[in-house]
Amino acid sequence: MKHTKPVFSFLFVALIFSCSSLGFQSDELVIEDEEFGIEGGRAADLVHAIPTSTPASRRRVDLESSSDSKSVQFTLEHAFGDSAYSPAGTFTARLKTWSHGGKTLTKLRFSRNGLTDAEKDAFKRLLEEDNFYTIRVPSNVLNPPGKGYILSSVPARCIPRESLDEHFVIHTDGVDILALNYGSAGSCQYPRPLKFPKKWSFNSYTVMKNSEQARRTPTFTEELLAAETGEEEALKAPERSFWSKYWMYLIPLGLIVMNAITQAMNLPEEQQPAGQSASQAQQPIAQRATNSAARRR
Amino acid sequence: MAARFFLGFLILLLHSIISCGVYEDQVGLADWHQRYIGKTKHAVFHSHKTGRKRVVVSTEENVIASLDLRTGDIFWRHVLGENDPVNQVEISLGKYVITLSSEGSVLRAWNLPDGQLIWESVLQFSAPSRSLLHVPTKFGLERENLVFVFGGGWLHAVSSIDGEKIWKKELYTEGLDIQQVFQQDDSDILYAVGFLDSLQFVAYHISVKNGEVLEESKKSFPSGFYGSMLLVSQDILVALDASRSSIVLINFARGSVSFHETYISDIVPEVAGIVEIVPSKLSGLFALRTDASLVLFRFNSIGELVVENTFSHPTILSDSISITEGHQVFAVMQHAETKVHIAVRFVNDLTSDALKETIELHPQRGNVQKVFINNYIKTDRSHGFRALLVMEDHSLLLVQQGKIVWSREDGLASVVDSTTSELPVEKDGVSVAKVEHSLFEWLKGHMLKLKETLMLATPDDIAAIQEMRLKSSEKTKMTRDHNGFRKLIIVLTKAGKVFALHTGDGRVVWSLLLRSLRISEGCECPSALKLSQWQVPHHRAMVENPSVLVLAKCGPDFLQSGVFSIIDSYTGKVRSSQKLPHSLLQVIPLPFTDSTEQRLHLVIDSNFEAHLYPRTPDSIDIFLREISNIYWYAVDSVEGIMKGYSFNSKCKADMEDEYCFNSKELWSIIFPAHSEKLAIIATRKMNEVVHTQAKVIADQDVMYKYISKSLLFVATISPKAAGEIGSVTPEEAWLIAYLIDAVTGRILHRVIHQGAQGPVNAVVSENWVVYHYFNLRAHRYEMSVIEIYDQSRADNKDVLKLVLGKHNLTSPISLYSRPEVVVKSQSYFFTHSVKVMTVTTTAKGITSKQLLIGTIADQVLALDKRYLDPRRTANPTQSEKEEGIIPLTDTLPIIPQSYVTHSLQVEGIRGIVTIPAKLESTTLVFAYGVDLFFTRIAPSRTYDSLTEDFNYALLLITIVALVAAILVTWVLSEKKELRDRWK
Question: Which residue stretches belong to region Disordered (chain A) (predicted)?
Answer without folding.
Answer: 269-297
